[in-house]
UniProtKB/TrEMBL annotation:
This is GNAT family N-acetyltransferase. Gene3D superfamilies: 3.40.630.30. InterPro entries: Acyl_CoA_acyltransferase, Bact_Acetyltransf, GNAT_dom. It comes from the Bacteria. Residues 3-153 form the N-acetyltransferase domain. It comes from Tahibacter amnicola. Keywords: Acyltransferase, Transferase.
Length: 153
């Protein structure tokens, strides 16, 4: 089976929404509001400054996706590319889908002026994902993440 990676289009929004909803339920036991999620995904296509989605396909069928968002670093005068909303369909796991998406993101980031690196966050308990990221050359950084979410309607 051949895995290819391409930029997502608006036609991929249903797959992106399904993948994000499945990932949230699987990893955090969160049931996402599909209408809100779809609006959020659509907003990325409406405002490219927010980021971009990529789709992985196995033999022409969508098998995975991820979102890249940007974080400006004044210390380094460049952008970190954050890998977010990673989803690989259950039947495509452990077949190199994420590894192929990651390799393509690293290739694109290195080719883009002003990109200083790749980042992502992972749950403390997700040892399998942490091992995967380490095997790709990523290193655990020394920061803890804090947040204060606001309720928005």
């Amino acid at each position: 089976m051949t895995v290819t990676v391409r930029p997502a289009t608006r036609a991929d929004i249903p797959f992106l929404a399904q993948g994000n909803a499945a990932m949230a339920l699987e990893t955090e036991q969160k049931q996402l509001d599909l209408a809100l999620l779809t609006r959020g995904i659509t907003s990325v296509f409406d405002e490219p400054r927010r980021g971009f989605y990529m789709i992985a396909e196995r033999d022409g069928v969508a098998a995975g996706c991820l979102l890249i968002t940007f974080e400006w670093s004044d210390w380094r005068n460049g952008d970190w590319w954050w890998i977010q909303s990673v989803y690989v369909a259950p039947e495509a796991r452990r077949l190199g889908v994420f590894r192929t998406m990651y390799a393509e993101m690293e290739r694109r980031a290195r080719a883009q002026d002003g990109v200083i690196g790749l980042r992502l966050y992972v749950e403390w308990e997700n040892q399998r994902a942490q091992q995967t990221y380490a095997s790709l050359g990523m290193e655990q950084c020394h920061y803890h993440m804090f947040e204060r979410p606001f309720v928005r309607v």
